[in-house]
């Protein structure tokens, strides 16, 4: 990782449905139990043997990566872990949680992608709360930054903590996308509901904590093999980001398992301000427009940075990485043809996420505070109206070269069926407009190079990713 010190897209593709959230406020018992502060260490088994990826039996990890990890000195393994979990309220609050009940049996899984040898390992572990909005276990944070993880030597662990990801399809009429229904032979023994007694994700917080405990302080099977973590970051996107906000506010003060938090694609919850653990939030224009992040804005502080990426959408386009895996695994693929505008912004927010990881690590390890990012300009908060230039592109915010040197109108706005409201839009400029903006190919490449260097110097684009953007510009047909 490098920042310049002198003078498409691997954006997480995920969806959101607030209807999947359930509050336990109406289900509070008359008497609460004291949960204590010690996180149990679960029993870990594995790695679980697998059939070849794409085998009709589905006897392999759901959404296993299609990347040739061996080329990078990495391996992928799946583990089951089980124990007894404490149930907490899933409702947002700034108060440290107390237990609703305890001793609920559970069994879940974690998916590990890690360097095969300690020499490749940088000592950092990213623990993702897997996103389950679409009914399966989406590794949104990995998909956003996997190239960065592989080149820098991070270990990655995806944790299946929520009911939908494990149990979707258990009931008649539900799509068979949850782990148990997707592969009964492989995942049939998993259960995160205590046999149906807890269906509000009240166990998810402790399940996530116990997975982290197994990584940090393994007893018996070590999910990281012979790797010893030096620093552990909690990460989550969209619905998982919401749960991580609640975890940070309610559970983290009791456990202190994570050294920092990377929260991506927020949906309107605020963080408590009396904790010392560092947090970086990365949001898109879409999150401000329709998901409540304008109302949830908080000032940067000695523990918080918020980065808002202009022109970007909650779900972005430009890569077949996700759709190809979904097709392989017989999982549903979103239909973007029903959207009113051409869907999926091409502004690659994942590059800002990559930079955020590096800033977070330096902030934790060396006390070097990350740069502060400009916020996207908002003309009105109710309804939210974003300031736009003559091309219809947002003003302010972090401005990646795809936005600062535009070839299209990229926004977080769209409408239509399904999840179109999350897909944003991408409306290419006409050939005539492109010629007026960039009379020749060299003028376009030079403008992109300047913009990439500027964002790199600001600290929001790593030099490796800036190089990729410059190469893409040089290979394009703009100005030819």
TrEMBL record:
Residues 51-470 form the Alpha/beta hydrolase domain. Residues 31-40 have a biased composition (Polar residues). Keywords: Signal. Residues 1-26 form the signal peptide. It comes from Neobacillus rhizophilus. This is Alpha/beta hydrolase domain-containing protein. Residues 31-58 are annotated as: Disordered.
């Amino acid at each position: 990782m490098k920042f310049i010190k002198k003078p498409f897209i691997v954006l997480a593709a995920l969806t959101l449905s607030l209807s999947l959230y359930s509050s336990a406020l109406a289900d509070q018992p008359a008497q609460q139990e004291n949960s204590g502060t010690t996180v149990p260490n679960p029993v870990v088994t594995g790695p679980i043997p697998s059939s070849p990826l794409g085998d009709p039996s589905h006897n392999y990890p759901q959404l296993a990566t299609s990347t040739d990890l061996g080329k990078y000195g990495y391996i992928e393994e799946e583990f089951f872990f089980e124990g007894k979990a404490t149930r907490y309220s899933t409702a947002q609050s700034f108060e440290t949680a107390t237990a609703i009940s305890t001793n609920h049996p559970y069994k879940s899984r974690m998916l590990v992608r890690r360097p095969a040898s300690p020499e490749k390992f940088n000592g950092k572990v990213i623990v993702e709360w897997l996103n389950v909005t679409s009914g399966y276990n989406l590794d949104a944070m990995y998909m956003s930054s996997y190239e960065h993880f592989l080149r820098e030597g991070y270990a990655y662990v995806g944790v299946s903590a929520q009911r939908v990801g494990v149990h979707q399809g258990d009931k008649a009429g539900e799509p068979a996308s949850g782990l148990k229904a997707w592969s009964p032979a492989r995942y049939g023994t998993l259960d995160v509901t205590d046999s149906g007694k807890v269906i509000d994700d009240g166990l998810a917080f402790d399940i996530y904590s116990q997975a982290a405990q197994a990584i940090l302080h393994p007893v018996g099977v070590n999910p990281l093999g012979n790797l010893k973590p030096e620093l552990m970051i909690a990460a989550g996107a969209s619905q998982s980001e919401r749960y991580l906000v609640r975890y940070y506010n309610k559970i983290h003060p009791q456990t202190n398992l994570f050294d920092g938090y990377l929260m991506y694609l927020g949906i309107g919850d605020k963080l408590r301000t009396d904790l010392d653990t560092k947090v970086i939030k990365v949001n898109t224009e879409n999150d401000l427009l329709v998901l409540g992040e304008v109302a949830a804005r908080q000032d940067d502080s000695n523990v918080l940075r918020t980065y808002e990426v202009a022109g970007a959408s909650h779900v972005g386009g430009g890569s077949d990485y996700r759709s190809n895996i979904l097709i392989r695994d017989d999982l549903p693929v979103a239909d973007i043809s029903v959207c009113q505008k051409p869907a999926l912004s091409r502004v690659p927010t994942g590059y800002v996420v990559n930079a955020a990881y590096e800033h977070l690590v330096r902030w934790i390890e060396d006390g070097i505070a990350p740069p502060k990012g400009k916020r996207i300009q908002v003309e009105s908060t109710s309804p939210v109206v974003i300031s736009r230039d003559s091309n219809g592109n947002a003003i302010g915010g972090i401005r990646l070269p795809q936005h600062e040197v535009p070839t299209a109108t990229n926004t977080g706005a769209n409408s239509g069926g399904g999840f179109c409201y999350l897909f944003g839009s991408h409306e290419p400029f006409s050939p005539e407009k492109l010629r007026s903006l960039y009379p020749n190919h060299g003028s376009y490449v030079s403008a992109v190079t300047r913009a990439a260097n500027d964002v790199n110097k600001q600290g929001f684009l790593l030099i490796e990713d800036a190089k990729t953007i410059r190469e893409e510009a040089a290979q394009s047909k703009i100005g030819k």
